[in-house]
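input
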Amino acid sequence: MSQQDSRLGGHILVDQLVAQGVKHVFCVPGESYLAVLDGLHDADIKVTVCRQEGGAAMMADAHGKLTGEPGICMVTRGPGASNALAGVHIAKQDSTPMILFVGQIERGMREREAFQEMDYRAVFGTQAKWVTEIDQVERIPELISRAFHVATSGRPGPVVIALPEDMLVEAAKVADAPRYEVIDAAPTAGQLADLQQLLAQARNPVAILGGTRWDARAVQQFADFAQRHALPTAVSFRRQMLFPADHPCFIGDVGLGINPALLKRVADADMVLLVGGRMSENPSQAYTLFDIPVPKQKLVHVHPDAGELARVYRPTLAINTSPAAFADALAGLKAPAQPAWAEGTQAMRDSYLKWSDPAAVTTPGVLQMGQVMAYLEKTLPADAIMTNGAGNYATWLHRFHRFTRYGTQLAPTSGSMGYGLPAAVGAKRVWPDKTVVCFAGDGCFLMHGQEFATAVQYDLPIIVVLVDNGMYGTIRMHQEKHYPGRISATELKNPDFADYARAFGGHGERVETNEQFGPAFERALASGKPAILHCFIDPQAITPSTTLDKIRDAALKAQH
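output
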């Protein structure tokens, strides 16, 4: 587009998205940004119309996680923006590149508390990497270019841009900005030499992978490095797609419900190679795994944002680079001829295989989630995308599903309920040829269950494994730990979710026994429709390893 052509602000904005390589937009429409919607009418961008702004923002987050490119979400002002905050919070804590566009009141009406007026810098200031409002139509290319660079650089995250509706209908002659480039740095030769020396001196090292700014190539490069060094490698909470579970060096995930043997292994390590992650509350076991500020383990921390290095943990060696750049540089590292820790790696590998075997787990109730997981492990293709929100039900997926491919996991490290369904919709919209399975609890599903309608609208045959125990199970578990027997505000009366699916135009089935699950799953696949398998489990089956009664009894004994 030449600078001599005059365009409306809404059209200029859409042209910038095209110039930045955007292919998908997730939105709930609003009259505050009609000019943008008009621009999208003729653009080569797929628009996914959602039912609630939180779901739209979570779809955008899912897009960002899968592609590494900013997920784009558009919502209207006030209540719409407030709903979208849930997705922005996920993108913040999960380090996901995302841009949220919010329709805004006319500029001349500010500070009168106009209809749905909000100060977006104040509302989103603690959750976004950058919040701005475009006051001049001429500055749209500049500020959109900046937004893409901010969202993807250093530690990725969300950017929020408010769009005054009168600005969007002004015209200007401006040139489009060139496509953004992700800014990165490479580890220095000195840092790599220091790392090699630390490894040579180690007797009990372990690697933990997390964060973002990975890709399939980087995952393979690190896997090759780990194999050369026989280096035991774990992944951080809900980052299991960062290292193949069928690799001889993979030893499990460091998160909630951690394998006790893995917990001890990390605690006893003399060196920890932490790549990409922040080692926040859940992987650090509530900040108890490593001493703060100086861990007793020698810590090599690799992170793309200098602000994260030494923020909580003072590393022995800090390397300010992305996981992808770091993994690319590892090929030149010389491995010890006979690593002192190789035997220990095999022992931890054996422990992981035993820990992740669903056949060995029996819980109360007729429907056994262990058998459900065993069926899925035999049935699903390796590139199936698995999604979940938050709740104890997710333990079954995280512990027993062996992720072997990059780009196959969508789960919020922020612990946000309701994420699984919109994430599945977003994933299927981006990768329509892949199998997408959403795990959801009964409480989790209804946080954004209305997005099932979005799946139906766009013919997205996702499969929802809905685990129903009639309560907010995670909260009930903690309730029994701290206030045994005093059940309060955790019970749920649920609809028939199979009927729910059919009411929206999807496929729905009730699953009450082990024998029913496999045929129901096959019929769901064959239907070619979005599907819900309503799976009823015993409330006592609160985790794979304990029951509510056992938790309550232990809490009561502790009181005496």
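quick obs: The CA atoms of residues 109 and 117 lie 9 Å apart.
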